[in-house]
Amino acid sequence: MPNSLQIALRNNTASSQVFAYITGLAIQHGGQRCILKADGKGLYFPQNPPAILSPLTEDCAIPLGEPGNTVTVEIPQMAGARIWISRDNKLTFLVNPGPALVEPSVLNPSDPNSSVDFGFCEFTLNDAQLYANISYVDFVPNIPIALNLKTENGPEQNVAGTAADGLDNMAEALRKQAGKDGRPWDKLIVSKDDKPLRILNATHGNAVGASFDGYFEPYVDEVWRRLARHPKLKVNTQAAPGTLHAKVKEDQLHVGDEKFDKPNTADILGCNSGPFTTGSSATRNAIIPRIAAAFARTAFLEADEHPSHPQTFYLRDPTNHYARLVHEHNLDGKGYAFAYDDVQPDEGDDQSGKVNAGDPVLLTVTVGGPN
Questions:
Q1: Cα separation, 41 vs 37, whole angstroms
Q2: 39 Cβ contact partners less than 8 Å away, ≥ 6 residues apart
Q3: If phi over 0 gives left and psi between -120 and 50 gives alpha, with beta otherwise, what is residue 324?
Q4: Which of 156, 255, 267, 364 has the fewest beta carbons under 10 Å from its own?
């Protein structure tokens, strides 16, 4: 596994003002928070500032140049890393005492980046592999991002991202859905100059006055009723506990020896609260992603074994229309729409929009959508 990796950043937009920033934890420097320097080679380590929200002492924006241009940078091993892309304006990163890097936020209207057209993809490069993905867990950006990975011994891997007009099309689909069911899907659309700038995940709906309280509860009740009288459900943990039988008894979902209370809407959208809170039990922690994904995809009533296949996803109402439309409006149907969107059957087709390999040679990040 290499100690470093080349990343090609391609500007496929119509703008000559496109900038990249690469942040993460420098594995070979004790896990310190770092930003790749503007030259695309060295690392900038923010120092402890005298006050909160202090500016960085160095501009780490990497200009991508004219439309069609590619800039190649080199990264060391990094964990929890992101490649941020902004169009027409630079991003503002700040630092708090610690030091703690303050990254752009789409949920804080006072954030200096709140009206900037930006997005990001995520990656980790360590001794074992490169893993990268396009994340929509927080929001869908206006600026499309696509990935291509070349390896020493395997085939190229591609994640297509959205088309150049993908956000506009998804916004229109959310407006139509809001008209159908009366739920505030349209409020998830954040606009600038009367044009969609980004779409927030329904998990963050309360930040824009889009409450989904009570939304999934009728579906959960339906699942509970069926599993109380149809105890044929199986959950493949895809780990040491193997495949476990599941049934509802005494108003709890029993999966093997583990018991789960009914999740509410917030639990299903976030996948990390209520019955989906992980803990010390390895078996329970292996079950949670599979049942959380089945609820998020409203697939529980479509198959008797989970994880199930994509043809069972989002067939009912209520369902997670944000996640459904993320997949519909990505050119290859792939993208991380919720926390456990990487859950798939054994030998199943990945839904999460990831590339990974133990022998990476070049990761290409293309922004702006296909020509």
A1: 6
A2: none
A3: alpha
A4: 156
Nearest to 92 by CA among 137, 138, 56, 140: 56
Number of Cα atoms under 13 Å in the Cβ half of residue 174: 29
225 CB-side CA count, 13 A: 6
| Identity of residue 15 | S
Instruction: Give per-residue pLDDT as tens, 80-111.
Output: 999 999 999 999 999 999 999 999 999 999 99
Q: What is the pLDDT of residues 273-310, one digit of tens each?
A: 999 999 999 999 999 999 999 999 999 999 999 999 99
- Taking CA atoms, 236 is separated from 138, 242, 283, 302, 354, in Å, by 28, 6, 11, 16, 22
Residue 204: closest CA among 317, 109, 113: 109
Which value, to the nearest 10 degrees, does the dihedral of the CA atoms of residues 341, 343, 347, 348 take?
Answer: -40
d(CA 210, CA 188): 7
Q: Are 135 and 80 in contact (CB under 8 A)?
A: no
Using CA atoms, how far apart are residues 217 and 225, in angstroms rounded to an integer? 12
CA distances from 147 to 118, 158, 192 (A): 16, 6, 27
CA neighbor of 196 nearest in space, from 166, 216, 220: 166
Say what the pTM is: 0.96
Alpha-carbon span 108 to 337, nearest angstrom:
21
Cβ atoms within 10 A of the Cβ of 369, count?
A: 20
Q: How many residues does the chain have?
A: 371
245 in Cβ contact with 199 (< 8 Å)? no
